[in-house]
Amino acid sequence: MTTTDVENYPGYPNAVTGPKMMNDFQQQAERVGTEVRFGLVTKVDFSEKIHKIWIDDEKLIQARTVIIATGAKAKWLGIPSETRLNGSGVSACAVCDGFFYKGKEVGIVGAGDTACEEALYLSKLCPQVHMIVRRSEMRASKIMQDRVINTPNIKIYWNSETEEILGDKKVEAVRIKNNQTQESSEVKIEGFFVAIGHEPNASIFKSYINTDEAGYIITEAKSTRTNVAGVFAAGDVQDKIYRQAVTSAGSGCMAALDAERYLAEHFHYNNRVKSIEKILKDKENKVEQEHVQLHQNLSVVDLASLGIAAIIGAGVFSTIGSACADGGPAVSLLFLGIAVACGFSALCYAEFASRIPIAGSAYTYAYATFGEIIAWIIGWDLILEYAIGNITVSIAWAGNFVKFLQDCGVERWLNQMGYEFPYYLTTSFLEAQKNIPELYATAPQLLGIPLIINLPAFFINFLITVLVYIGIKESKRFANGMVVFKIIVILIIIGIGIFYVQPENWSPFAPNGFAGVIKGVSAVFFAYIGFDAISTTAEECKNPQKDLPRGMFYALIIATILYVLISLVLTGMVHYTQLNNEAFLANAFTQIGMNWMGGLIAFSALIATASVLLVFQIGQPRIWMSISRDGLLPKKFSEIHHKYKTPAFATIATGILVDLCSIGTLFAFALVCAGVLVLQARDKKQPIQNTTPKFKVPNINGTLTISLLWLV
């Protein structure tokens, strides 16, 4: 506080100097346990939940809440005498210092509302106020201008600029120049006030905190909250209207209360529950802060397509057979029952989606009802469903790909050419090590390490990740295309098969009774997994409140109709006892002389598996994005790509997680080799006795090993 005396602060009837007031404030704060630290704040980082502040570029302070009260500094004219006479007649606050010039002539420079207010205040204390205005009109509001112009003891010098403030030890006069005639003149005064505006001390925060065009920090209405959670602003740094010690103290008290409430809501309770309003507000603040949001491009047709893409996966070409073998034709009724059960769940999703159109699915819904702990658990459960499940799906796609190549005769062609099919490039390392010892023993090796990697799984996941990364619009186009292809194939199966149905195969309808039908529940329910994934795209829907519920129900209805029809047709074409094998569809058509259907079914299984992988790859990054918004994951996971409008980092992380399953062992070997390099570097700096020899075969060390592993 640079003002000499403060006369309008409660508790100081005889006025008080600025330094004395600040010292009293400090003593009061320390008496109640406040730790006071002195230094210059040189850098801040408000990007995480725990805020960081550096003092003098060295000392780091970390805090859950920060109150910015850095004030505002007056703008000055920039003339030497202004600095020399500051405090000796020159001031930037007429309300603070005007009383000292009671009965004396003073000057004031400025043309805005603040200058007019201070000129009017001084006119009540001083016999003459000389007001210097640079232009032929003021910038102040019309009503303020009229009041100044009509005040008899305020003399206005239009088109004038301050050249110099005259006086040795105190202000004696001011020399002004008319910028139209270029004539200079001196005006006798004893006080000079600069009122050309203020500049808030907020520049160090601009990378994180929203400010207005004048640089003042923007706070929420009737609050001191800024756009960054846990950061509050009080005093002149956010107040460009009043700028008084009393009002600053009041807003400081408000900031303390706001900070206390924030801590109570976010940290004092082990299981905080977020209100729906808070969830929606946090999302709006995130968009406002980053000036980017997910692209709203999905219609109800797109949502239904994504739902069908997730529901009708490879299961329709594999698991339905085992269910039919257990329950017979009555399994078709089981599909209806499971669909009704899923429909009830879809109704609940619809209720939430209409009230919380946020891309967090069950995680966000749990946060709004059961609290953070349950939300955290269900969030990681969704990660198991999507990210970890994608590992299984990508491996299943690789298996279907190999089978498709075999059905196309690729393996037979390679054998005729004198080559063997490279199974070591289509199998995971751990799978070969545990279950295929002959492959593990015969695979090519590098430095004693079998080169076994599931390349098809790696590349399908890589391609899907790239597709999801570059945009939801491109993803929906591929999803729509794959869904259309799947439905056409299923309709072909139904359309051809219906002509070969033998009604006697439907008798008995439930050969193993109710127990046999129920035995197929797990396989049938598995066929419906994934319809909830479309709720993760809530922020990318054109109208989430209406389209999300409709999309879910359309997907369930269409999938159920297709499941019921295909189960009835299959059990009518062949006896249910012949369906308990993976190739039940192909076998059914082989029996009626349509061997060519086997290739179409194998290719359809590839498309079906890829569509499931696509939907789950869309869902997982958006779950991570929502968890990150709540501060339960690093902020990087909630970043949205400015060009593609997708959660870029979370998408890449999901793809890497799945691909690590294919190259995980090689990655582990590479890390071990990198560790050897670190140890060797440490040994050079701090020699220790080494009981094992250096790895040299000849002149090959860890560096070359790592390079070769990654090249492979």
Write the layout of secondary structure elements.
Layout: E1 5-6, E2 16-17, H1 18-31, E3 41-45, E4 51-55, E5 59-63, E6 66-68, E7 72-74, H2 80-84, E8 90-91, H3 94-97, E9 106-109, H4 113-123, E10 129-132, H5 142-149, E11 154-157, E12 160-166, E13 173-178, E14 184-188, E15 191-194, E16 198-200, E17 231-233, H6 245-266, H7 276-290, H8 300-311, H9 319-327, H10 331-355, H11 362-369, H12 372-407, H13 410-416, H14 429-435, H15 437-442, E18 445-446, E19 449-450, H16 455-470, H17 472-497, H18 513-519, H19 521-526, H20 544-573, H21 584-590, H22 597-629, H23 648-685, H24 702-711
Parallel strand pairs: 6-17, 8-15, 9-10, 9-15, 10-11
Antiparallel strand pairs: 1-2, 3-4, 4-5, 7-16, 12-13, 13-14, 18-19
Structure, explained:
This protein is an alpha/beta fold and 712 residues long. The protein contains 24 helices and 19 strands. The chain has 3 domains: 37-73 and 200-266, FAD/NAD(P)-binding domain (3-Layer(bba) Sandwich); 76-196, FAD/NAD(P)-binding domain (3-Layer(bba) Sandwich), CATH 3.50.50; 294-417 and 464-652, Up-down Bundle (Amino acid/polyamine transporter I), CATH 1.20.1740.10. The chain is elongated and about 115 Å long. It starts with a strand and ends with a helix. The strands form 7 sheets. Strands 8-15-9-10-11 form a 5-stranded parallel beta sheet, covered by helices on one side.
